[in-house]
């Protein structure tokens, strides 16, 4: 039994004649008669009653007719369902942002997804990049913006931009607000740093070791908000991504870009190498990439490199 046989059977019952059905379908009547005989043999029962006035279904034939109609209706709806899935997709998509970048990207991404694809439901997870990576590997997050000193081979990476690091200072005590500062001098001001394993911390520690220097780290932080608050309260300087002052959680701090050498972090849009993203997730991925690129091109975003 195949789709063609079922479709032809439905057409025979609809027109009530093998001869007329053969003409409508565009096949020879003997071929259509052979198909019905094959169906009856396969199902082990008579499906049509033939008379001088045409054909009509037996009880078994009427049941087959109803089932075949439902199947053909479902097949005919497939193209429209595909078009709807493409033009108005639905589904849940879990996305992640690192703490330091979430204030800049998460809300614009949500707004863009709701505007373009209102039937997609977003679940947002904020946390350090190391946690984002673990959640992707454990299938808890489908897409995430991740900061890395050295990109891992475990994930698919869609490069977004490179971001410079800067010294985060108390605006009231910082000299030459916003002016670049040598790494060696910056190290003398630093009291607190992101936790060990954080990509910013890894980049900083490696650069300090190459200079033959050391830093007396008395505080460690796992969120930009806590780090920024500590700097503003006078606990000492720290280091982080060079981010726009206008969106920094506190206006009492200032960024001074690190030089000699410059320090950089790669920012990528990541997903699993093993699990293929759903159609909805693919659309959200494109929106996340567009929002990210558009945001860092704005005039108040400093220290970013797209290539």
Would you kindly provide a written description of the structure presented here, covering whatever features stand out?
With 307 residues, the protein is of the alpha/beta class. It folds into two domains: 3-86, Arc Repressor Mutant, subunit A; 91-305, D-Maltodextrin-Binding Protein, domain 2 (3-Layer(aba) Sandwich), CATH 3.40.190. Helices cover 44% and strands 24% of the residues. It contains ten helices and 13 strands. It has helices spanning 3-15, 18-25, 29-43, 59-87, 102-116, 129-137, 183-189, 199-211, 224-232, 279-296; strands spanning 48-51, 54-57, 91-97, 120-126, 143-148, 155-170, 181-182, 192-194, 219-221, 238-241, 253-259, 264-272, 304-305. The strands form three sheets. Strands 3, 4, 5, 6, 7, 10, 11, 12 and 13 form a nine-stranded mixed sheet that branches. A two-stranded antiparallel sheet has the order 1-2. A two-stranded parallel ribbon has the order 8-9. Helix 5 (102-116) crosses helix 10 (279-296). The longest helix is centred in the N-terminal third of the chain and has 29 residues, at 59-87. It is rod-shaped. It starts with a helix and ends with a strand. The model has no long low-confidence stretch (mean pLDDT 87).
